[in-house]
Amino acid sequence: MLRQYYYLKKTGRKLISPKVTIDELARLQTLADYQILDSHPEEAFDNLTKLASEICGTPISLISFIDESRQWFKSSYGLAASETSRDISFCGHAIHDDVLFEISDALQDERFRDNPLVTQDPNIRFYAGFPLTASNGTKLGTLCVIDKVPKKLDESQRISLARIARQVMSELEHRKTLLETAELSKKLANSTIFYDALFNSADESIISTTPDGVITSFNQGAEKMLGYHADEVVEKSTPAIFHDHAEIIDYAKTLSNEFGKTIDPGFEVFVLKAKHGHPDSRRWTYIRKDGTKVTVNLSVTALIDDYGVLLGYMGIARDITTEIEAQNSLKSLTSILEITGEMAKIGGWQLDLQDNAIKWTKEVFKIHELETIDPPPLEEAIEFYPPEARSSIVSVVKDSIENASSWDLELPFITAKGRRIWVRTQGSPVIDDGKVVKLIGAFQDITTRKKSELDLAWLNRALLMLSKTNHAITQINDEKRLIIEICRIAVEVGSYRMAWVGYAEDDERKSISPQAFFGDSGKSYLETMNLSWADDGSVDQAPAGEVIRTGKTQVIEDL
Known about the structure:
By secondary structure, this protein is an alpha+beta fold. It folds into 4 domains: about 1-180, 2-Layer Sandwich (Beta-Lactamase), CATH 3.30.450.40; about 190-325, Beta-Lactamase, CATH 3.30.450; about 335-450, PAS domain (Beta-Lactamase, 2-Layer Sandwich), CATH 3.30.450.20; about 475-550, no CATH class. The chain has 20 helices and 18 strands. Strands 3-2-1-6-5-4 form a 6-stranded antiparallel β-sheet. Strands 8-7-11-10-9 form a 5-stranded antiparallel β-sheet. Strands 13-12-16-15-14 form a 5-stranded antiparallel β-sheet, sandwiched between helices. A hairpin with a 5-residue loop joins β10 (about 295-305) and β11. α3 runs antiparallel to α6 (about 155-185), α7 runs antiparallel to α17 and α17 (about 445-475) packs antiparallel against α18 (about 480-490). The relative contact order is 0.06.
């Protein structure tokens, strides 16, 4: 800041600093919630800045987060600095919009020509930054690329930069989930039903071990990913049986150099950083029971109790095979048609505005579930979108034709066979002599990913329910008030319509006596039910009776 002040005083020039966002307080709180500022470097983010520089052909790429008075770099490729003042930041300007913020030549832009980042080292001339947008709409920072010479990105590079920015947010959300899961795991080690339900509902592989590495828990996500049953590995094996030994040896060498001592290629390789309080999230190859391999992002956390005693470790692994394939495809793209030709299950299309001729690749026909070899006219193709989504696609197509804009939307879709799916549709104009003559784009079935996003949202609700329930248990001494509060949490946080608690009575009819309820129609529902945990079929038993008789959770998806 002093260098900036003396520079401006000496030159007499006026610096145009970025304005504060209109949602600044909410934005700063959201940024704090991610616990990202001043964190250690992480390979996942460094890979993305390197990829951005390679695609955009720039020597510098940054993942920047805008704090109250500074911009801090989570990853900086080609730049030694770890932060700069917000007053002189380019990214501080970029977070005011939803689209790419691009400066072709900073010396020709009155906002930046007197900026010390332009007139002095690093002598910025070109800047392009895409905002990093949280799920609540606030802008946390940017993914940006920088050059010391004037330039402009082509349309393909702009699309790629936007995609990588979304991948940065995906990694950020995943990191936030890991931190929250680790924190809850420490606090809720003694939970029973809620913890077991949460543990086994995750699609990710979650494995915990003793401090020595013996597996102590192995969730259903791990069983599905690795092909082992929990009984085969719990208290019998270490995670080394799932790993490629060559990778363990290589990482042991890396850690030996980093810590300045010899690290043997064993269990310590996986937990060394976590044991020292540092996050350790990196790519590994898991080897399934049948010998096949899957690439995962494995994050390891030390489990430490309130007295500082190490209880063990927890590893959460996410299958990133699809993400790796997408990144590898992005590196070689030169146009949208190239992307659709190289990425799995993505179709390509073209609309010639001269004669309204439409061309589809085979994958587009497959997604539509059409067996014809001729694509339908544009008007008929748009009708595959349900009414609530139709106006969105019509609007972006019209805007692209009239204003040469591009689009990237995720919309509901109904196939020719009536199957409801989600698709990602992208389009860009082809301009000839200043006029849009064609539209080309990509088309992808993203139903599986959408389901995963919904599953993650469910997991987050479950985590919040678990946290609030345990808080209530510690704060409410009255049993009646406690069970009513638990019912309220299930309805208001878990988004259930109604929740109730009943006690099993040891009377002649083995009745279930409702004690508390919360939610829509709860009282009328319970008054009409003649609940019992008997198994003779003489009275209404319902799922509650089965729960009491078996001691197992019952889930009825459709009564």
